């Protein structure tokens, strides 16, 4: 097999696009060229007898290129000359097939179950929560229009005087986007690439007990691919002097560290920050083991040489005030010794108490506030000044947005879950009205400001929502009939092959039938693409067209 790999390398040497100046093979470039059916690459492979025999099939006198088979060879772990060279050139995370996640172009989409509650947490009670997601992986050859800019729908501007339809968008506007955050991020690139000063995210922790895929835990390699897709775009959005903070717990943080090193560069890793959940002495657990009572926040710069970092100090009396009343607290001097003022940026970030968004909640809301406004405030003030832009694409219940308003920063928040959007809207309306919870008093917050809420215009996402909400087989059969009549079904599927009266179909569980219908959708058509906005098929309103054109800064 090694002789065959050598033959492939010799063919590829004919094209300088596939090698560095030092002669190192750029496997990712070769793979992408193959997936795009690059004419020059195909001609080179066809001209060599060995690669022609391996990668081409004759069908009635026509040679057909097997790009999937070629892609497997290029990504095979044995492709590099020997194991020493392989690990010398690259040490990183691999997926279940042995391929490096960093070189994979797969896209991981997730579809949250309609009424689930998404929380971060550490306690045993927290881990009983029910977070159900569909996890869908798209290979590069399945992705063509997926990450194209999308149309925005239902844009509404909220101010202290109420809300109104929004048909324009400006640099001064704050933004709350509802929709799949990967596609929302891709849509932000056109306007915001290189402009965002700070990104803070608190992504799903993938604890294994939170069912971060359909009826199963989200496998580590799939979770890492899910994170990689989003972090790659996040890096493009960051300003040269910008920073990103990623908050996780022990389940995935060490793997995420390797992934972040690969994306942002080890030289741009700045700090590992500990976010303690309660005092050690007051934390209750039945486990006969060391107590786990903290999250880890990984802090990276876009460019360590240009990083903007602003020193801030908090009076020691403020620490004492925050800590007052904690059960079994240790003397404050045991934690902070030294001067009258403590450098908040040189110590571990500590949570004295869990803040909640209880002022914003209705009795039926089942959400626990994991992120403290004080935590987000300290991060925001370390990297931004008034008017700078902050992004949180796992927006949750709007903590980052609330803090940005109270500290006079601009924000962009992405969130997909209906329940969280509802809470965020209620919360932010109260913030601009002048509510006094969290960091309001310390920042002399009296209210004011505004924000724009909008949604990615749904297409096949409507069917995805209906599938997830279906409660019986009749619901699914109705959805399937509608999909056949008006939906965009995957080009790989012949609808006539789906026999809902067949015994093997009837034998499927409701969950498996839902999974099947999800797989039949054309996932490139989840939302309406901006380039299709004027197509009457998609029935985009004039108001939506006006706002979308304004957002993308086109007349």
How would you describe this structure to a colleague?
By secondary structure, this protein is an alpha/beta fold. The protein is built from 18 helices and 17 strands. The longest helix is centred in the middle third of the chain and has 18 residues, at 220-237.
Number of helices: 18
Low-confidence stretches: 81-89, 113-131, 210-216, 325-356
Average per-residue pLDDT, rounded, comes to 81
Distance between the termini: 57 Å
Largest sheet: 11 strands, mixed
What key phrases describe this protein's structure?
555 residues, two-stranded antiparallel sheet, 18 helices
What layout of secondary structure does this protein have?
Blueprint lengths: L1 H11 L14 H9 L3 H9 L1 H7 E4 L2 E4 L1 H9 L7 H7 L17 E6 L20 E6 L13 E8 L2 E4 L9 E4 L2 H12 L3 E6 L18 H18 E11 L4 H12 L4 E9 L16 E8 L11 E3 H8 L17 E3 L6 E2 L21 H11 L5 E4 L6 H8 L3 E6 L2 H15 L18 E6 L3 H10 L3 H14 L16 H4 L3 H11 L21 H10 L4
Parallel strand pairs: 7-16, 7-17, 8-9, 8-15, 10-14, 15-16
Antiparallel strand pairs: 1-2, 3-4, 5-6, 5-17, 9-11, 10-11, 12-13
